[in-house]
Amino acid sequence: MCSNPETIAYPVPELPRIPERTFVITDYGAEEGGFTLCTSAIQAALDACAAMGGGKVVIPAGIWRTGPLTLHSRINLSADKGALVQFDPDPALYPLLSSQYEGNAGWRCQAPLDGEGLSDVAITGEGVFDGSGEGWRPVKRFKMTEKQWNHLIESGGVLDPQGEVWWPSREALEGEGFCRKLRDKGDTRMEAFLPARAYLRPTLLSLRNCRRVLLDGPTFQNSPAWCLHPFGCEQITVRNVQVRNPWYSQNGDGLDLESCTHALVEHSSFDVGDDAICLKSGKDEEGRKRRMPCRYITIRNCTVYHGHGGVVIGSEMSGGVHAVRVSDCLFIGTDIGLRFKSTRGRGGVVEDIVMENISMTGIVHEAVSFHMFYAGVEGSEGYDEQYFSVTEETPQFREITLKNLVCHGAVTALLVNGLPEMPLADLTIEQFRAVSERGIVMRHATGLTLDRIWLQTTETPEITAHRCSQVVLTQSEGLTITEK
Q1: SS (H, E, C) 90-130
Q2: Is the pTM of this model over 0.90?
């Protein structure tokens, strides 16, 4: 471990090496206007570019409707300003591929933008890539007004038996139960899962085991599930992008870096329906066996307008998350600001994390949350006092530094819910100013340093600790720690 992790500056990831050739999709028969599918024409341009050794494939201004596209090495897919690439939501257009989702391997519909085992791949320009997620996603009634809900029902689709969740089709509604029965029987054949294709909704962008990746400039929006999902990739640069999903979008994450090495995310904005910028590394036993951590990650100068978390680590972190630097970010109205989450059964180690110069306002729940009892809900409530044996299934969070945080408006400034058998260890918080209903609530933690803390709360005491050890509070006028 590094004794002074703040001084670490990770090398900037290598950028793709792409030849200076240009291919325009209209030269391959693509027709603008959205009246016909351009899948074959756009794919032909991509294939021709690859056959020539790579280059830039240009999508001009206009509306281009298409099915899923398979990317190649040494290609820059560039959408010009004014271009809208709209992916048709018909599940029949999307073959099932072996992929990763929510920490587990399995069959998923091919992503609209899909690539595996590539090197030197880029998506650039100022155009828009739209996943037509409304044709795939379920919608929960409590997230709609009555007028919106009635309009949704009138548009078609089906309701679950309780009348609380709308699905675009009966196949999508019944897909979860159908897939569960197949897995219970141990049936892993792709053909067996085809009837559930409408349920196995894809991410908008899936890049698996790729090297030297660049996303620079476009808007990625309205994804069927997660929006951007690099898995097992190295040397990734994400900059100047806008990621947008409806606030109610189910599983509408912005960017999920899973088991990736050397990534830079900068100068980008996120307005999404789930976690905005999230670091993952597999789930439970499968993730532990894979042993592919997410590491050497830099996130800086990003803005999050809505999301369940601004920058998030977990909850699928079973392969570990190491060496993360986050700085100079702004969160406006997110459910949680900086979010660390896991649960018993995950295992894995999260360590060597430094986050600094973070501004937050209008946070719905906690400005900063460490929650080891995550159960799939938006906030961080719920914990227990029961001790379990420490095993490989016990998650560990340690050696984390947070510096120069400002939050104006939250329910709780800082929440620590560590496990009784594995307390959160070695957390340092320096220069934290917060206006919130509650101040700092700590449970089951050890080696905490709170330095230069300023709290304005409506509830007292401002700082409480329950079964915490080695807690130091310095240079924080008027504040004391109350044991509970």
Answers
A1: CHHHCCEEEEEECCEEEEEECCCEEEECCEEEEEEECCEEE
A2: yes
